[in-house]
């Protein structure tokens, strides 16, 4: 088997080593454009878990690496005069040059042909090769020459950074944050060999320009950073190595291989340096590629397909975490000064969402105990110091005169089981079971304020006395047999009304019996749906009054909270989005104009809803579509809503237009809730793929949201909150009929 590797970085060298071990008869040549001793950067970082994988793959190179790396367990966060230390993280740092030397020597020892100082510009010369591995970096020639096949996408991020070194030793992975008259600067620093450390300085583009770094030479940039961090450097010098200011490119590629050519490492994907994953990813690519090739001898196409199928989801998952991490650092100004030191450090440590409250507790129980005690003292002002603090999710939360026992919310979930808007025994059991299950707040499904405002014939309503009486029965059950509070989500489906039950075809028009629908503009959901009539002033007055009637009925039913539905493409949401609101009057155009009618509804409802009871508003923080509502719009709208008297924002996303392109993933909507909470200074509720108690604790403790709403997790397990408490060793009071459960120990195998 003849193999050519384009690029001589760690990924290509490691592949050649492992491939030569697996197939000693393989003829492998590695082509590197630079000299062996000529490389950008200073050090690389591996976690202990990553190193374990390397040990299994090739013990000889692993042993050579461990002889030359430095190891540490601590992370130090320097913030506003304090140093917050967390231990138990397990990292190894190493000179990039030393790593290349180890891998180069090991490859040569195994018989790999190594060609340095040779730039490949044409793949035609490798026509006789069975496999071509393109590991030629972020600016991959191979990827760009064959872009029509690989379909790359590069996202150049907005922050600026400069990769420096220093002769200052570090005992921990260290983060510095320093503010001057130009802005806020952050440093990522770690030792990679005795007496030498990487020192990456990062800032926003505005800060970079104000400091004149856009005009600075390499020497001037180094001198500026030395002055800026003189106190932290304590007399030590900064070192340069082609240290120019850069922006980070996030590389994603639709297809990882074409014919017998396969991409590896930075050529196919990048992950931000804040989680130290570039070299790790490349070397783990090498392991996976060798496994695939050896599993399918003689069938390169099948092997490359297997490699891509197996490896791509793993990389995409890590890239999502890297994306959240880099966005945290892009937005440090959001946290700086708003979060107290301990919470700031916890937020930083859990920024990628891969390290959670529970995971961090296993690494450093003392640090997490401090976080929990700090958080409990603020949630429970009269809490006595010295007691074991409850997990963050089990601290109370207050809105006006409403106090919730804990931070868990049963999210609104349409059931499509009502008749003429009237809820029944299904809703009693559905809501009652989840209230008994321990959640602090239970939300009804979207409850429509008029018959024509229903999504489907099976949707719940609150527009007659009979509706209020049916809801009263459920509310009384919740208040009598649980400590939960119950909120009603009021909405009007707008252009998404008059459709089938979800399991009969979500958002599809009824086969018969459709009723007229309306919206801010005459734009149908899809071509098959009705064209809504454009609302006039009389329509607006009627809808506003319907919300007022529903609010009065909600009070008669005994609800503790109202949530107004401004999200998911329903009527009030359709006013907010520029994709669904094309009006040219005072209700269209600017964000303030688009928010005008939803605000009229809010003010009318607030006027009749008891002063002691809170009102929530649910928004879609993004339309996931070009030209639509954006996260920045969400923050701006939240500021306006706060000024109007809204108590909490329930931050969802999408479902506003049918051609949306959402970016899903674990906790994928939480960053929107965090941005609204911190930048608009208003409590928020996070929702969206939250399913574990440790995620809830992480979100709450880090200040990303004040409440966490879970939907499918509660459908699967109505007693989710109680079971979470049991797993954490936290004692909740069970209802008297279930009191024997206090001594019950569940078995899971």
Structural topology:
Blueprint (H helix, E strand, L loop, with lengths): L1 E5 L3 H13 L4 E6 L10 E5 H10 L1 H8 L3 E3 L2 E5 L2 E5 L4 E5 H15 L2 E4 L14 E4 L6 H5 L1 H4 L1 E5 L3 E7 L6 E8 L2 E11 L2 E8 L1 H6 L7 H11 L1 H4 L4 E2 L9 E5 L3 E2 L2 E3 L14 H18 L4 H31 L1 H4 L5 H9 L7 H7 L1 H15 L17 E3 L2 E3 L3 E3 L14 H12 L4 E8 L16 H17 L3 E7 L10 H4 L12 E2 L13 E2 L2 H21 L3 E6 L4 H6 L14 H4 L1 H13 L6 E6 L10 H14 L3 E5 L17 H10 L4 E4 L5 H9 L5 E4 L1 H5 L3 H9 L21
Parallel strand pairs: 1-2, 1-9, 2-8, 5-12, 9-18, 21-22, 21-30, 22-23, 23-26, 24-25, 26-27, 27-28, 28-29, 29-30
Antiparallel strand pairs: 3-7, 4-7, 5-6, 10-16, 11-14, 11-15, 12-13, 13-14, 17-18, 19-20
Helix pairs in contact: 1-4, 1-10, 2-3, 2-10, 3-4, 10-11, 14-15, 16-17, 17-19, 19-22, 23-24
Q: What can you tell me about this protein's structure?
A:
With 749 residues, this protein is α/β, with parallel strands linked by helices. The chain is 38% helix and 19% strand. Helix 2 crosses helix 3, helix 16 runs parallel beside helix 17 and helix 19 packs parallel to helix 22.
Could you give a short description of this structure?
Among the domains are: about 35 residues; about 325 residues, TIM Barrel (Alpha-Beta Barrel).
The number of strands is 30
CATH topology of the domain at 398-732: TIM Barrel
Please state roughly what percent of the residues sit in beta strands, choosing from under 5%, 5-15%, 15-25%, 25-35%, 35-45% or over 45%.
15-25%
Shape: globular
Mean pLDDT: 94
Biggest pleated-sheet summary: 8 strands, parallel, barrel
CATH level-1 class of the domain at 398-732:
Alpha Beta
The CATH superfamily of the domain at 398-732 bears the name Aldolase class I
Q: What is the helix content?
A: 25-40%
**Which CATH architecture of the domain at 398-732?**
Alpha-Beta Barrel
* Annotation field: number of helices: 27
| Residue windows where pLDDT falls under 50 for at least 5 positions | none
Tell me the structural class: alpha/beta
Distance between the termini: 48 Å
Identify the strand order in the major beta sheet: 21-22-23-26-27-28-29-30
């Amino acid at each position: 088997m003849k193999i050519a590797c384009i690029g001589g970085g760690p990924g290509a060298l490691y592949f050649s080593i492992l491939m030569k071990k697996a197939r000693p008869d393989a003829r492998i040549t590695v082509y590197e454009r630079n000299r062996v001793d000529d490389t950008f950067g200073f050090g690389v970082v591996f976690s202990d878990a990553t190193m374990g994988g390397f040990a299994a793959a090739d013990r000889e190179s692993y042993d050579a690496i461990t002889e030359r790396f430095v190891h540490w367990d601590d992370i130090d966060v320097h913030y506003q005069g304090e140093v917050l230390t967390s231990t138990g993280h397990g990292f190894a740092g190493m000179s990039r040059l030393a790593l290349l030397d180890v891998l180069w020597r090991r490859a040569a020892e195994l018989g790999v042909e190594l060609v340095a100082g040779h730039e490949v510009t044409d793949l035609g010369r490798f026509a006789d090769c069975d496999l071509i591995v393109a590991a030629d970096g972020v600016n991959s020639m191979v990827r760009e020459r064959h872009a029509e096949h690989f379909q790359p996408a590069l996202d150049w991020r907005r922050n600026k950074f400069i990769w420096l070194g220093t002769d200052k030793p570090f005992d921990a992975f260290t983060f510095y944050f320093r503010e001057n008259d130009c802005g806020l600067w952050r440093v990522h620093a770690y030792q990679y060999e005795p007496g030498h450390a990487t020192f990456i300085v990062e800032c926003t583009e505005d800060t970079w320009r104000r400091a004149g770094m856009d005009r600075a030479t390499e020497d001037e940039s180094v001198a500026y950073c030395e002055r800026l961090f003189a106190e932290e450097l304590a007399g030590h010098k900064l070192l340069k190595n082609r240290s120019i200011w850069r922006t980070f490119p996030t590389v994603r590629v639709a297809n990882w291989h074409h014919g017998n050519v396969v991409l590896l490492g930075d050529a196919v994907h990048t992950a931000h340096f804040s989680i130290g994953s570039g070299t790790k990813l490349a070397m783990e690519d090498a392991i996976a590629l060798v496994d695939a090739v050896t599993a399918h001898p003689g069938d390169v196409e099948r092997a490359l397909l297997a490699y891509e199928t197996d490896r791509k989801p793993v990389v995409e998952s890590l890239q999502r975490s890297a994306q959240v991490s880099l966005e945290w650092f892009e937005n440090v100004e959001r946290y700086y000064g708003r979060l107290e030191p301990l919470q700031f450090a916890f937020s930083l440590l859990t920024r990628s969402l891969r390290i959670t409250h529970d995971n961090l507790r296993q690494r450093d129980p003392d640090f997490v105990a401090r976080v929990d005690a700090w958080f409990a003292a603020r949630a429970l002002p009269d809490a006595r110091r010295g007691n074991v603090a409850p997990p963050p999710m089990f601290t109370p939360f207050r809105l006006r005169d409403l106090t919730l026992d804990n931070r868990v919310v049963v999210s609104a979930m349409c059931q499509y089981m009502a008749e003429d808007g009237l809820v029944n025994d299904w809703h009693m059991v559905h809501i009652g079971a989840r209230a008994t299950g321990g959640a602090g707040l239970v939300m009804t499904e979207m409850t429509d304020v008029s018959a024509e405002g229903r999504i489907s014939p099976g949707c719940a309503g609150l527009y007659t006395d009979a509706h209020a009486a049916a809801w009263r029965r459920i509310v009384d059950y919740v208040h009598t047999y649980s400590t939960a509070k119950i909120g009603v989500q009021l909405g009007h489906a707008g252009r998404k009304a008059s459709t089938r039950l979800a399991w009969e075809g979500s958002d599809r028009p009824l086969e018969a019996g459709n009723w007229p629908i309306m919206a801010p503009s005459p734009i149908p959901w899809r071509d098959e749906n009705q064209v809504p009539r454009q609302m006039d002033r009389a329509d607006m007055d009627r809808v506003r009054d319907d919300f007022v009637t529903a609010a009065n009925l909600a009070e008669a039913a005994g609800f503790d909270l109202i949530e107004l539905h401004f999200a998911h493409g329903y009527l009030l949401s359709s006013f907010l989005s520029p994709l669904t609101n094309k009006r040219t009057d005072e209700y269209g155009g600017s964000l303030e104009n688009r928010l005008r009618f939803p605000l009229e509804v809010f003010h009318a409802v607030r006027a009749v809803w008891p002063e002691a009871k809170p009102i929530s508003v649910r928004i879609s923080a993004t339309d996931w579509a070009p030209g639509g509502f954006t996260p920045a719009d969400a923050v701006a709208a939240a500021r306006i809503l706060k000024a109007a008297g809204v108590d909490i924002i329930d931050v969802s996303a999408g479902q506003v237009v049918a051609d949306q392109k959402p970016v899903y993933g674990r906790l994928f909507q939480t960053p929107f809730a965090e941005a609204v909470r911190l930048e608009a200074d208003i409590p928020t509720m996070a929702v969206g793929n939250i399913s574990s108690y440790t995620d809830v604790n992480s979100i709450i403790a880090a200040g990303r949201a004040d409440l966490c709403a879970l939907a499918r997790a509660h459908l699967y397990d109505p007693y989710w909150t109680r079971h979470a408490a049991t797993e954490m060793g936290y004692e909740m009071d069970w209802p008297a009929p279930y009191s024997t459960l206090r001594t019950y120990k569940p078995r899971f195998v």
